[in-house]
Request: fold
Amino acid sequence: MKSNIVKIGLMIAAAAILLTGCKDNDPDEDEKPGDGNEEQIFFGPDNTQLGNGKAEFFIQNSVTIKKGVYTMVGWIYVVDGVTLTIEPGTIIKGTDYNWDGTKAANGSSLIIQRGAKIIAEGTPEEPIVFTSAKPKGQRQATDWGGIIICGKARNNQGEMLIEGGVHAYHGGDIDNDNSGILKYVRLEFGGYPYALDTEINGLTLGSVGSGTTIEYVQVSYCGDDSFEWFGGTVNGKYLIAYHGWDDDFDTDNGFSGKLQFLLGIRDPKIADQSNSNGFESDGNAAGTDATPLTKCVFSNVTMVGPLGQDPSFQNNTTYINGYGWGDKTDLPFPIRTGIFQCAMQIRRHSHLSCFNSVFVGYPVGIMLSNDGRGDTQGAAAADLLKVKNVVFAGMGMTGADADKKVPADWSGDISNDYFMQAKLNNRVFSTIAEIGLNQPNSKQSSSNYGPKSGSPLLNGGDFNDPFLNDPYFTKVTYVGAFASDSDADNWTKGWANFDPQNTDY
Reply:
């Protein structure tokens, strides 16, 4: 295996970039190894194995990765003060093995530490792709880790160690902090389970500031959450979560960014034991009122759940009641199988708001849950969070109040009553067909999820709410992520890939 790959580390060595090859595994140490005066060595196969089976490397000088195809081994950190630039059209293949081909203790990941930057700005014609090192037909979730970006913006827990087992802290008081650019970037077959409930997500953003650009990013076949924000103020547009395992868009610890034009597509056979949702949003794990609160604002989201992705499941009561392939134990992934839960879960004192969006084909539409940890329901009643001008179609039930329950225990009075208030202008349709939304079957080389002619989604977009009074939002007249089903309105066209399993890299 080793002799057939071009290693990203060797590429950096060829460019005469020096890296450190040593760091202990004490997470309490400062993120930047040593004082900068330790011996510098080239990044290569003879100096990569560090304690407990891990391979960790630290980029200590700014570097540009030229357009090409590379393989990434181990955890690669970009340290404070350093900028990693990746040219358009570059393909980086992630692995879960060591230099000698043996199984690694962790999947390879790229970690941008506080004060460092990544400039990964592809183009529609030449996106930057992080994908599996395996050949087509053999790729799967958890083939590698993901991209982790840590910043200096605020969260509601102070300085935090980012999840996933890596040695990187996030948090500070610089809300306009700039960690760089991710634009026209795809992340495929990542999401590594470092330990139970300590997974690396496709894209993890820890206290990332609003000076950072996150646009046109697709996460596909991820073994945990596709996108997760832990605090921070970074905004984002044109994001795709495709066939992920756990939640599509997960927001925690005081995240307050603005997000617009998001697409989430589920495979009905892929769900997590933790209960998979479209949105999962917490103030913090304890549900306290620690500030800053999670007050992110979403607009123009199209979320197609398991019942909407594959029409053959729409009359299957097992799926309508929320269960995925929880009884199937022979899947090749080292992660737990489980059930689908809801399109939008807001809990633990989160004040997430969502406008001008469409959610289809989940067991539950909206879940406002208290469950003894924070008064999310009270916040909704007081208009501290808003779900407004939103369409739900083809749901098993519109609303539920209890998190992590089986369908027989669901109740929905509070969530239903909140969602159906006249002032919120929300709408419920019994079937997906009524809203005229394209819903291609899974695993197509190109997909169009725009509304068809005559769809009620083609108009009705409304930005006359104080929560949307921000110049970051594009004021559009439609509901959902797309203006229509024409190619001209399909912002996924060209750079996104809905069949990465069969793509030659």
